[in-house]
């Protein structure tokens, strides 16, 4: 919720005070509901992702997240009828196969954690397709900063009741901690600032490439996060699990090459 409040504040400053980009208005109720749907999907994805971390190690969580391109390709086809080449779809098979291998050999496998993590992954894929429509469609095109300006407050409002219900007296606890250790204020501000930059660059990448490319690029982060997680938390990893993750990353590389070739042939 703090991330979304900071995104709204930074976007407001960038558009209204610094005038980096001109302000765009919501043109129709249909466009409004698309932005609201984007906010709800985003919240669902984040809540599921954070919940899964209570049950699954970070490395396995990131491995499941690597299947996002697979879900993105499906949603892009169902919602926008956007077809990729057979080579691109073929490259996504090892991405999913790798996760199946990693799941079967995960020592700390938890079914509920796995299901909410898959839900988070599917939500992230659906969000990238919907934001792609709002950023690139001729009739409803919004600049990345304007989309963030409208989406962030909606997401913050959706998350507010969950925050009050689940977090309890978190505001008072944060103030109490800040009195004894003021550095936490800088940590929260820094964290919120990075969140704004992450969301803004996320939208910009979607606008200038595609929803599917954004998710494939995100898998590079997943590989690094998985390795760092194993090094920090020392969670057990099997040879089969590492093999599965390696197969997934190989699929990502194959996808990148297939996508590059399909662009060359279309041009």
Layout of SSEs?
Layout: H1 2-17, H2 29-52, H3 58-65, H4 68-80, H5 86-104, H6 111-136, H7 144-167, H8 170-180, H9 183-208, H10 211-233, H11 239-266
Notes on the protein architecture:
By secondary structure, this protein is mainly α. The protein has one domain (2-12, 30-266). The protein is 82% helix and 0% strand. The protein contains eleven helices and no strands. The longest helix has 28 residues, at 239-266. It is globular, with a radius of gyration of 20 Å. The relative contact order is 0.19.
Short structural summary:
With 267 residues, the protein is mostly helical. The chain is built from eleven helices and no strands.
Largest sheet, if any? none
Q: Would you count the extended β strands for me?
A: 0
Report low-confidence residues grouped into runs of 5 or more: none
Total DSSP helices: 11
* Alpha-beta classification: mainly alpha
Give the CA-CA distance, first to last residue.
43 Å
| Rg calculated over all Cα atoms | 20 Å
| Secondary-structure element series | HHHHHHHHHHH
Average pLDDT confidence is 81
Which word captures the global form?
Answer: globular
Strand content: under 5%
**Share of residues in helices:** over 70%
């Amino acid at each position: 919720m703090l991330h979304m409040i900071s995104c709204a504040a930074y976007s407001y400053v960038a558009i209204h005070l610094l005038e980096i980009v001109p302000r765009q208005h919501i043109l129709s109720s249909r466009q409004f509901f698309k932005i609201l749907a984007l906010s709800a999907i985003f919240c669902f994805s984040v809540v599921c992702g954070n919940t899964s971390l209570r049950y699954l190690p970070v490395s396995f969580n990131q491995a499941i997240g690597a299947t996002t391109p697979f879900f993105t390709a499906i949603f892009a086809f169902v919602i926008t009828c956007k077809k990729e080449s057979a080579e691109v779809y073929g490259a996504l098979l090892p991405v999913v196969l790798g996760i199946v291998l990693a799941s079967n050999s995960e020592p700390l496998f938890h079914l509920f954690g796995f299901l909410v993590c898959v839900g988070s992954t599917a939500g992230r894929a659906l969000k990238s397709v919907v934001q792609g429509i709002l950023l690139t469609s001729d009739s409803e095109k919004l600049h990345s900063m304007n989309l963030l300006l409208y989406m962030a407050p909606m997401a913050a409002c959706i998350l507010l009741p969950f925050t009050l219900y689940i977090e309890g007296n978190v505001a008072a606890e944060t103030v109490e901690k800040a009195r004894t250790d003021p550095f936490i204020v800088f940590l929260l501000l820094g964290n919120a600032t990075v969140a704004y930059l992450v969301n803004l660059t996320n939208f910009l990448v979607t606008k200038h490439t595609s929803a599917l490319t954004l998710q494939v690029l995100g898998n590079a982060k997943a590989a690094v996060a998985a390795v760092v997680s194993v090094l920090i938390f020392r969670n057990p990893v099997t040879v089969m699990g590492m093999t599965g993750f390696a197969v997934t990353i190989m699929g990502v590389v194959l996808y990148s090459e297939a996508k590059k070739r399909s662009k060359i042939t279309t041009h």
